[in-house]
């Protein structure tokens, strides 16, 4: 059997294929919304589209790691024992950020509207698991487990985080145009979104490098999406607050633990 040649630029190929897969899948999500399909159909299609990076990585896997088995690679990313201190600190940081944003939003409302987007415990649980099954579980293997680790073989964790964070943020481009924002409002949203994504990515990298288990970035990704999704506030304001607060966290992590962030 003829052996396939290794990809010369695996990360570039991964990013391109991820976008090629994501765009038509996301168009299906949009079509489901426009045609008035039940919300559960919309949610399922949205979750599937979020897995485009994992699908792309699976397709390219044998060209990138010809001597490895995909299932073995995945298991390796979860092999290391979870350090509870790392997981708890990451969660506590995000709970603090969530609390600060809630206080800001609450101070800006007149008290007649709920500051939360969910109105029952059942809806909260559904939203939690819908969020978990999309981005956190669907994106981390490709973007963090493969792309971040590969880039760190050449660059520092910080530089790798900025590069991957930029392309990861840009991958969300179709979603930006479903916000209903236009003009300067859309530009502000995109700028804050990219800052929030890159700074959150730096946090993911710092904590992942402390534990080397994909559960850690999955947790951080989950709480970022979940918390911002349940706050009933102005979208631009919410993403701006997130960009500022996660930016502060990123700077603090660089200052207190530069070996895990700045250097190869």
Brief account:
This protein has helices at residues 10-34, 39-50, 52-64, 70-76, 84-107, 121-133, 135-151, 157-171, 173-176, 183-211, 215-230, 235-256. With 264 residues, the protein is mostly helical.
Describe the protein.
By secondary structure, this protein is mostly helical. It has a domain at 81-260. 75% of the residues lie in helices and 0% in strands. The protein has 12 helices and no strands. It has helices spanning 10-34, 39-50, 52-64, 70-76, 84-107, 121-133, 135-151, 157-171, 173-176, 183-211, 215-230, 235-256. α1 (10-34) packs antiparallel against α3 (52-64), α5 (84-107) packs parallel to α11 (215-230) and α8 (157-171) crosses α10 (183-211). The longest helix is centred in the C-terminal third of the chain and has 29 residues, at 183-211. The radius of gyration is 19 Å and the shape is globular. The N and C termini lie far apart (39 Å). The model has no long low-confidence stretch (mean pLDDT 92).
């Amino acid at each position: 059997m003829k052996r396939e040649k290794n990809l010369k630029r695996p990360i570039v190929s991964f990013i391109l294929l991820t976008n090629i897969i994501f765009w038509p899948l996301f168009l299906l999500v949009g079509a489901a919304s426009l045609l008035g399909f039940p919300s559960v159909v919309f949610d399922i299609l949205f979750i599937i589209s979020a897995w485009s990076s994992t699908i792309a990585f699976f397709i390219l896997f044998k060209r990138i790691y010809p001597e490895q088995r995909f299932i073995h690679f995945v298991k390796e990313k979860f092999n290391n024992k979870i350090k509870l201190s790392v997981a708890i600190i990451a969660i506590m940081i995000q709970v603090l950020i969530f609390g600060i944003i809630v206080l800001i939003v609450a101070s800006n409302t007149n008290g007649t509207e709920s500051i939360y987007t969910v109105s029952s415990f059942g809806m909260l649980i559904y939203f939690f698991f819908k969020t978990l099954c999309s981005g956190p579980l669907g994106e981390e293997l490709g973007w963090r487990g493969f792309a971040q680790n590969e880039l760190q073989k050449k660059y520092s964790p910080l530089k790798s985080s900025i590069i991957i964070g930029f392309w990861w943020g840009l991958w969300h481009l179709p979603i930006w145009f479903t916000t209903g924002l236009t003009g300067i409002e859309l530009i502000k949203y995109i700028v804050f979104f990219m800052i929030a994504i890159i700074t959150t990515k730096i946090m993911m990298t710092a904590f992942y490098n402390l534990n080397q288990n994909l559960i850690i970035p999955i947790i951080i990704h989950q709480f970022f999406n979940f918390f911002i999704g349940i706050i009933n506030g102005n979208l631009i304001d919410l993403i701006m607050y997130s960009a500022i607060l996660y930016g502060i966290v990123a700077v603090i992590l660089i200052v207190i633990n530069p070996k895990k962030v700045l250097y190869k």
